[in-house]
């Protein structure tokens, strides 16, 4: 059954007029190249063949797959989202927008141009506004510094919600009807999901609550420990299962299941792209 979600708004918004197409390329796990209004953003970059004990299951990312970027969005400091060597590969001076409390950890690993963003705060990247949104995601004490996980709302002529890593929570309802595209995690990298994650069913409930025009499942089928890979579980199931669950729950939201490296182009009037009340 759908979950009733409360209204929780992190900031003041306005609607800009319709604009040109946006391009979204899923590179695997939570790494998405978003091209909107002439701005290129990359989310939670994991670009190599492994992250610690996790091995990349999908094909490697080609060197030319990531063009010059205007900014990188880091949702939280878990290793499969804040991957230091991948960030350095993008250039030590690349602008990184990260949660409040993340700067010292990133700078200690050679990432010099870090902008911290608290939940509800906005910044500009070229012609688009970026707002840090709440996320509900646990951590492992002692492994990384205290930097509360966030999602991001990217607002130009169209709007995109990148959830980062999160569980279902009431504040998602603030986005209802105001997002063209939602990037939603639907799985993980192990055989089980711990608290603070969305599975395909809960991700479909989130999409139903947010009501974007399009929903793309992320955070699935890309990374796994070597021993899980040897067991050959069906790592390709969560994305299509999310699409099936969403179709049963809300056929007004179009689920777009991409393969790593595949691009979706959306060309539609902005359904509710949000910018700063004092101008983007």
Tell me the CATH architecture.
4-Layer Sandwich
Structural class: alpha/beta
- Structural shape: globular
The span between the termini is 38 Å
Give average pLDDT, whole number.
83
Outline the low-pLDDT stretches.
1-16, 272-280
Number of strands: 19
Largest sheet: 7 strands, mixed
Percent of residues in β-strands: 25-35%
Query: What is the count of helical runs?
Result: 5
CATH superfamily: Ribonuclease Z/Hydroxyacylglutathione hydrolase-like
Kindly report the CATH topology.
Metallo-beta-lactamase, Chain A
Question: What Rg do the Cα atoms give?
Answer: 17 Å
Query: What's the helical proportion of residues?
Result: 10-25%
Descriptive account of the structure:
With 280 residues, the chain is an alpha/beta fold. The chain has a single domain (21-275), classed as Ribonuclease Z/Hydroxyacylglutathione hydrolase-like (Metallo-beta-lactamase, Chain A, 4-Layer Sandwich), CATH 3.60.15.10. It contains 5 helices and 19 strands. It has helices at 84-89, 103-107, 200-210, 226-231, 238-249; strands at residues 13-14, 22-28, 31-36, 39-43, 50-51, 54-56, 71-73, 96-99, 114-117, 122-125, 128-134, 150-155, 159-162, 181-185, 214-218, 223-225, 254-255, 263-266, 275-276. Strands 9-8-7-4-3-2-18 form a 7-stranded mixed beta sheet. Strands 10-11-12-13-14-15-17 form a 7-stranded mixed beta sheet. It has a 3-stranded antiparallel beta sheet with strand order 5-6-16. Strand 14 (181-185), helix 3 and strand 15 (214-218) form a beta-alpha-beta unit. The protein is globular. Mean pLDDT is 83; it is low at 1-16 and 272-280.
């Amino acid at each position: 059954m759908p979950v009733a979600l409360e209204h929780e708004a992190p900031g003041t918004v306005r609607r800009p007029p319709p604009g040109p197409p946006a391009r979204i390329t899923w590179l695997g796990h939570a790494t998405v190249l978003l091209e909107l209004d002439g701005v290129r953003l990359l989310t939670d970059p994991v670009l190599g063949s492994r992250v610690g004990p996790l091995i990349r299951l999908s094909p490697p990312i080609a060197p030319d797959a990531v063009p010059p970027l205007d900014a990188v969005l880091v949702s939280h400091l878990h290793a499969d989202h804040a991957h230091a060597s991948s960030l350095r590969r993008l250039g030590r001076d690349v602008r990184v927008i990260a949660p409040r409390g993340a700067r010292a950890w990133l700078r200690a690993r050679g990432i010099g141009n870090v902008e911290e963003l608290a939940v509800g705060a906005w910044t500009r990247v070229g012609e688009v506004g970026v707002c840090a949104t709440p996320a509900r995601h646990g951590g492992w004490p002692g492994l990384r510094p205290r930097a509360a996980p966030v999602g991001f709302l990217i607002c130009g002529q169209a709007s995109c919600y990148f959830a980062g890593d999160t569980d279902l929570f009431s504040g998602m309802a603030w986005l209802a009807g105001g997002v063209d595209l939602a990037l939603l995690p639907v799985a993980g990298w192990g055989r089980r999901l711990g608290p603070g994650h969305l599975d395909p069913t809960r991700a479909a409930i989130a999409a139903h609550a947010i009501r974007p025009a399009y929903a793309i499942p992320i955070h699935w089928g890309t990374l796994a420990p070597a021993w899980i890979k040897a067991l050959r579980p069906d790592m390709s199931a969560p994305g299509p299962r999310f699409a099936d669950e969403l179709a049963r729950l809300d056929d007004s939201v179009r689920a777009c299941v991409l393969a790593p490296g595949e691009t979706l182009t959306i060309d539609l009037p902005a359904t509710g792209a949000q910018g700063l009340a004092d101008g983007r």
